[in-house]
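Thread: "does anyone have the structure for this chain?"

Original post by V.I.:
We have the sequence but no experimental structure in hand. Need at least a predicted one for the grant figures.
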Amino acid sequence: MSLTENDNRNITIRGQDAEKLIRTGNSRACLYYLCSLYSGQSSVPALARMLGWSQEEAFAARTALEAMGLCAPLSDKPPENDSLPLYTTQEINEVIDGDPAFGSLIEYTKLRLNKILTHTDLRILLGLYNHLGLPAGVIMLLISYTVEHIKKRRGEAARVGMSHIESEGFYWHRHGIVTEPAAEEYIRKKTEEDMLIQSLAKLLNIKDRAPTPSEEKYLLKWSSFGMDNDVIYKAYDKTVLNTGSLKWSYMNSILEDWHAKGITKLSDIDGKDHKQGNPNGYYGHAGPGKPSESHAAENAAERLKRLRTSRENKTQGR
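Reply from O.Q.:
Generated one for you, tokens below.
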């Protein structure tokens, strides 16, 4: 939008707002505020283009205005219904021709997705850039993270589309991940989570597939208990012994019980588990610390079988 398109528009600034702007002495914040009022535009990239600034300079001006209470934080104003504008081909081409940063973003996206971008792809990319106001550098980090995240879970052959990037972009915007430092910190934390999930999954003999989203929630929950891996493996061993396989809810009940008792090391288990009323180690849906009838019967039968075998061996030894 040209700044001369609205030559006949009058703008009004409240006296108290003008006083805030004057007292700060922040000339860029004043220019940003006036340009936004005059153009009716709230997109940071669009205003940066109008003012001839970098997006970093525009974000700094907006942050100053947020501190003055003259505009709402970006993360507090997610677009309604998580929808992006339906840009026309002409509108997209105008931005491509007038904004080298957006042109570079298109080329980067082509390389990361290994495809020619369709009109729908370009519309989504422009929506993230112009409507959500994410800087080009943040969108590049967003694309890279989304591609790597999906391939880790679905395999290297998984196809990543702009719809995946759009969904993740809205999530970032809603949570205030709108600067490169914030994006890098988010990616760092998610990478640590992924490594932790993979480590625990391997401990539970999940090797030929990625954990499902529900399984990941269990793994992250257990990792927050501060237990040694030996303790988690002990719970896994009990689960398989008592149920015949990895039953996630059953194992969760064991670990929740141990967490409530303050168990963090393998040496804690026998003492605290026996002292606090669960000497047989039964867990599950039959009630806290109580064995189900089927599990009790199975274990009683197993103990009887071992006893008989032991007696037969002693008889034969005579």
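V.I.: this helps a lot. DSSP finds 15 helices and no strands in the chain.
O.Q.: and The first helix runs from residue 15 to 24.
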